[in-house]
């Protein structure tokens, strides 16, 4: 059995799809999944589903939706370790193993990637990060009606995804795979035009691919955008990399600790 929220919501038991169709039940399930194995208060769930002006019947409806989720879980396999929706004094808790939810599996693989990188097992580290990022099928909670809680969760998940991408790219740069990461970094920098940490990595990758002129063009374009839109200069790390390219200081460019954010 499996719950996926790193993209459109999917609930599957083997090849059988059990994804709820009703919008409010999907919202309730998503709110429980982003806080898996942690109790979520009924007031929080009601606000997430109905907003700040819920109907008088909201608590009763919430209990009905929770019952439908329990029925969905009961329809799954006879695995004794299948998920359980527990009722707490002031809310609900969806209890499940980490391998049943893509969000938890993503976190586990990223942790393993970080440990491998710390131990200088770079090929293993990059493989773990690739497996983690391969779990994503689009923006998190793509087809779920989101309130404050889920909007915040989706933002946090996207930040964690970008952090994993940067960690994996840093390993690729360390392994001298500059040319391989240029297309990916170019796309990411275009999607996040003010993200300086992505731009500095793009500059390093371009320089390592023998395209220093293009790297300097990236710097000028970012600086123009930052000054015009935000009224700020590029951060110290970007300026350090820019100067290192102008002065051919390869030692600075080889030291990720001087520019990786």
TrEMBL record:
GO terms for biological process: phosphorelay signal transduction system; regulation of DNA-templated transcription. PROSITE patterns: OMPR_PHOB. Keywords: DNA-binding, Transcription, Transcription regulation. Residues 1-96 bind DNA. InterPro entries: AfsR-DnrI-RedD_regulator, BTAD, OmpR/PhoB-type_DNA-bd, Sig_transdc_resp-reg_C-effctor, TPR-like_helical_dom_sf, WH-like_DNA-bd_sf. It comes from the Bacteria. Residues 1-96 form the OmpR/PhoB-type domain. GO terms for molecular function: DNA binding. Belongs to the AfsR/DnrI/RedD regulatory family. This is Transcriptional regulator, SARP family. It comes from Catenulispora acidiphila (strain DSM 44928 / JCM 14897 / NBRC 102108 / NRRL B-24433 / ID139908). The lineage of its organism: Bacteria, Bacillati, Actinomycetota, Actinomycetes, Catenulisporales.
């Amino acid at each position: 059995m499996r719950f996926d929220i790193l993209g459109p919501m999917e609930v599957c038991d083997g090849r059988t799809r059990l994804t709820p169709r009703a919008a409010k039940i999907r919202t309730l399930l998503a709110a429980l999944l982003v806080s898996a194995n942690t109790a979520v208060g009924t007031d929080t769930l009601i606000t997430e589903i109905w907003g700040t002006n819920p109907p008088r019947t909201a608590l009763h409806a919430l209990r009905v939706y929770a019952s439908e989720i329990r029925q969905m879980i009961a329809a799954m396999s006879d695995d004794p370790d299948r998920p359980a929706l527990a009722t707490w004094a002031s809310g609900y808790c969806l209890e499940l193993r980490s391998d049943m939810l893509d969000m938890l599996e993503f976190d586990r693989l990223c942790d393993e990637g970080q440990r491998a990188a710390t131990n200088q097992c770079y090929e293993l580290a990059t493989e773990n990060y690739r497996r983690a990022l391969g779990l994503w099928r689009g923006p998190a909670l793509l087809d779920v009606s989101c309130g404050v809680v889920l909007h915040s969760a989706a933002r946090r998940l996207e930040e964690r995804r970008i952090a994993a991408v940067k960690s994996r790219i840093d390993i690729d740069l360390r392994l001298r795979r500059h040319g391989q990461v240029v297309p990916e970094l170019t796309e990411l920098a275009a999607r996040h035009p003010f993200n300086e940490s992505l731009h500095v990595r793009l500059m390093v990758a371009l320089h390592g691919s023998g395209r220093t002129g293009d790297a300097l063009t990236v710097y000028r374009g970012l600086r123009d955008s930052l000054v015009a839109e935000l009224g700020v200069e590029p951060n110290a790390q970007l300026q350090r990399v820019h100067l290192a390219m102008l002065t051919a200081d390869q030692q600075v460019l080889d030291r990720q600790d001087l520019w990786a954010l």
